[in-house]
Amino acid sequence: MKQMRLWRLSTLLTFCGLMALSSCSNEEDTDIVPTDAVEQQLQQMSLREKVGQMFYVRPECLDTTIHFNRSGGIDESVDDITKIKLQAVNETMRGVSENYPVGGIILYAHNIEDEAQLARFIPEIRSLNGSPLLCIDEEGGRVARIARNSNFNVQTYESMGAIGATGDPRNAYECGNTIGTYLHRYGFDIDFAPVADVNTNPENIVIGARAFSDNPEVAAPMVTNYLQGLKDAGVTGCIKHFPGHGDTKADTHFGYASSAKTWEEMLGCEMITFKAGIQWGCQLIMTAHISAPNVTGSDVPSTMSPIILQNKLRRELGYQNIIITDAMEMGAITQQYTNAEAAVGCIKAGVDIVLGPQVFTEAFDAVVKAVEDGVISEQRIDESVRRILRLKQSIRK
Hints:
This protein is α/β, with parallel strands linked by helices and 397 residues long.
């Protein structure tokens, strides 16, 4: 009887041990082979492939025969990139993209001739390494790359300020839906619109009537209805320019600009529209290159400020989706930072997508080196790429 009890005890312990080993094995298998499609894709990507997803660039950035200078122009003979009119993918671009994959391409007015050219160009772009999304600034009003082109027969709008003045958010929905409908038809995925700034400074030379109102309570429902209009048409919107470019005098396209507001003042104005967009569920927020010294205690542009992007936008406002920079080729960045410093600095600050670096390959290599040198962790890169892949997944369903 005693031997029988010992045998049973031994059998029970052995069974428990096997169960414990089996349990551990299952947990390890789950880590190795995740069931989530995005996580599976992320694990299969090389570092260069991951970094590439974090760059959205103009087509010219893939043509390394075009040489950009520090002032934003190109080489000695051409000081205006619009004169090049790059409107098709060439062999240089294909070759560069093999080693420098890119997550997105933004088209400007000079890249677009007419419907026939656009119909050829977009499939060429989609075939580039990195499976790029197609983006455009089509706000309506004076910032409209397609609507202001006489070769396109689409509805035009006076301004978002004029829509805001009607006081009826349904007009903002109609605007967003109309713009989204023709963008979707032409093949675009993302529209960098609407402007969520509140135009509180009459001396502002860059926002003005691009904003819906100087009253955040009026602007907020306009912003969310415009976003809904885009979404219903099959296009993803992006609110801009966080933490608010409406109360500035200078233009960040050309140099330094700042807001003197405190965070408490912003909460009572600018943040009303951004909070509305976040609550609605916006997928992208674009940063402003303005400094906010009374919020951050420094003159660092918001695009490169962890206080603005992580402490305020992520933690305090609870935003969990993609943070994208305004174009990094703008004077507010290029006059203070090199391509490498800017790209690495904004990612360290919390940015997910670097838009429009002045020299793409230089910025790309700098980010890869920063990871290899331990300046940026690969886990930090994964955080951003995970968000980007989820966006792509939702767009391409």
